[in-house]
Write a structure and sequence with these properties.
eleven-stranded antiparallel sheet, four-stranded parallel sheet, 10 helices
């Protein structure tokens, strides 16, 4: 009996390569002996619905799109308790999550890796009622990931994020946060905060791979306190560039949980998608929640 593969594709991701090469992609899975169920997304949360509805009867889930589409598929798998492994063909504008796992950027290489690779367990993080696969962030440039127009993303790719983010520089304002970890509480004003499970965020901020294990039951918490002056800000940039995180310039912690308290007036970005602000956020890691196929 043929194995069943559920392919979920966002036709608008990146430069629409998924649609351009769809026949070739289908042929590769067909020749590998898969019975294919193909679904295209048309609106937000379609990928979540499709993964939850059709995932339980599938032997393999394949996401074709960007980080936002991958997030939606993961949410559907978590809700539907889908245990089939997932393969990712990253055709978005930035593909942070794929970069963290060294998933090939070219669609043909990515398909080959899915067909010939092996499942690897990874953690998935929960942010109140939502899940994220690689980052939840707020503050400087976090808005850029979900506010950049899709046509600009398609035309310019990652450069679009840089150009759009430059508009936010003058609007950076300190955000009051209180974060309760299992063994300490951190409180203050910050220009950026992120809970992540990846080595790259926004395609610009890269974490030291030695400090990130995507299946250790912990997320990484990065906080950038509001700089007092230009010298302070220079030290912040130095810490980020060298990946040597030194308080009080950059606070870096690993933790299985975090209780986050805010004034609720600002939004977050979850895997590049907007998440409406909340006064209290419970973040936690679900250890080895899914399996992703890697070369």
């Amino acid at each position: 009996m043929n194995r069943k593969a559920l392919l979920i594709i966002n036709p608008c991701s990146g430069r629409r390569q998924g649609v351009k090469y769809l026949v070739d992609i289908l042929n590769m899975f067909d020749r590998a002996g898969y019975s294919i169920s193909l679904h295209l997304t048309a609106k937000r949360l379609d990928a979540t619905r499709l993964a939850e509805e059709f995932g339980p009867a599938s032997d393999l889930i394949v996401c074709i799109g960007g980080d936002g589409t991958f997030n939606e598929v993961i949410v559907g798998m978590m809700r539907g308790k889908v245990r089939a492994p997932i393969g990712y063909i990253p055709l978005g504008s930035t593909n942070d999550f794929a970069s963290s796992l060294n998933i090939p950027k070219h669609w043909r290489d990515a398909v080959f890796a899915i067909l010939n690779g092996a499942p690897k367990a990874i953690d998935i993080c929960r942010f109140n009622e939502r899940y994220f696969s690689y980052v939840a962030s707020c503050g400087a440039f976090a808005k850029t990931s979900y506010s950049t127009p899709q046509n600009l993303k398609n035309a310019l790719g990652h450069l679009a994020y840089i150009l759009e983010g430059a508009k936010d520089i003058s609007a950076i304002r300190p955000l009051g946060l209180k974060i309760e970890l299992p063994d300490e509480t951190i409180e203050g004003e910050f220009i950026f905060a992120a809970c992540s499970n990846a080595t790259t965020v926004g395609g610009v901020l890269r974490l030291d791979p030695k400090l990130v294990d995507m299946n250790d039951g912990k997320m990484e918490l990065m906080l950038i306190p509001s700089p007092n002056n230009a010298l302070h800000f220079g030290k912040v940039l130095q810490c980020l560039q060298t990946k040597k995180y030194e308080a009080p310039y950059v606070i870096f912690k690993s933790s299985p949980t975090a209780e986050i308290y805010t004034d609720g007036t600002f939004d977050w970005s979850l895997d590049g998608e907007k998440y409406t602000g909340s006064k209290k956020i419970s973040a936690a890691v679900e250890h080895s929640a899914i399996s992703i196929i890697l070369a």
